[in-house]
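Q: what does this look like with glutamine bound?
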Amino acid sequence: MSPAVLVLENGQRFTGVEFGARGQTLGEAVFCTAMTGYQETLTDPSYHRQIVVATAPQIGNTGWNREDGESHDPAAAPGDETGRIWVAGYAVRNPTRRVSNFRATTSLQDELVEQGIVGIAGIDTRTVVRVLREHGSMRAGIFSGDALAEPDELLERVRTQPSMAGADLAGEVSSPVDYVISPDGEPRFTVAAIDLGIKTNTPRMFAERGVRVHVLPASATLSDITALSPDGVFLSNGPGDPATADHAVELTRGVLGEDIPLFGICFGNQILGRALGRSTYKMKFGHRGINIPVIDHATGKVSITAQNHGFALEGSAGEEFDTDFGRARVSHVCANDGTVEGVELLSGRAFSVQYHPEAAAGPHDAAYLFDRFVAVMQGENA
Ligand SMILES: NC(=O)CC[C@H](N)C(=O)O
């Protein structure tokens, strides 16, 4: 097995072995605590430009299949549209040697090679995670093969890459063209979904509820939206720093001005929050995993949620504030650290959450939010 090295911005190096493609990759090192769902994690466009460190020690048991991908490439061959890996790199402790799942068509190792994703295995991921937890997410690189020829240069390469703060990335992952996901059965409503890095399970959750989803590129304008006469607008998850997403924020303000019902997830929550006048900040190490507890301020109920974010909205539990579109409040907070996990207009016409009710992968506690959005489109008071 050939050597590979993970180099962190603070100068720490972890030597392991190649995993996936050979070469060099740069990105922000972040850790994900999910025990399962690596295929969904790797294909989630929100991880664009990030090197994911898995805290679960053994990765790859279920191989790779043609069904669980979360990216959407309308130009890809049928059956392959959801499989693009978006992470910049993958760092694991112990890759499985034998795939064991009836749906697997290949192994994770082979898929990483196929897609040219550079990874590293055999490092003490517990130590890496402790460093990231203590010092925060930081720039990093994984190097193997010829990239190891000049070991003294690696740290410089890591340190000269752009930081995640200030990164405007939604346009790099968004579909360049519109596409439509048809509902199961008769269409009841049409939602215009702004693709800032949308995961495929989101339109699927709408489709199950009779909603036709018209996905629009991140560059869509308010007239592109109103031309569809949608019953609602959806703001997707996505990569990068929400403070850079000025176009999406202006678009959202336009949608709120038209009083079209609006729902947002993750990046979409940060954008709705900004449209309501709040600002965002970079968290120390973010929330990435599938068992993160969130408190709904209105009911006191806790949902166990899937999350993947490194930025958050300013605010505190239950805080109410005035906006250009009426009064709003912080609707949800994280039970672990009190960060904002949701905002809403008191009118109920617009709401969003920082976590992932589409749960791919993850627990289904928050799926009711899709029902709530359908109820708002139906004209019911949410
Ligand atoms: N999953 C997401 O939508 C992530 C949103 C944003 N890029 C963040 O890291 O906070």
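The mean pLDDT is 97. The chain has two domains: 3-160, 170-377.
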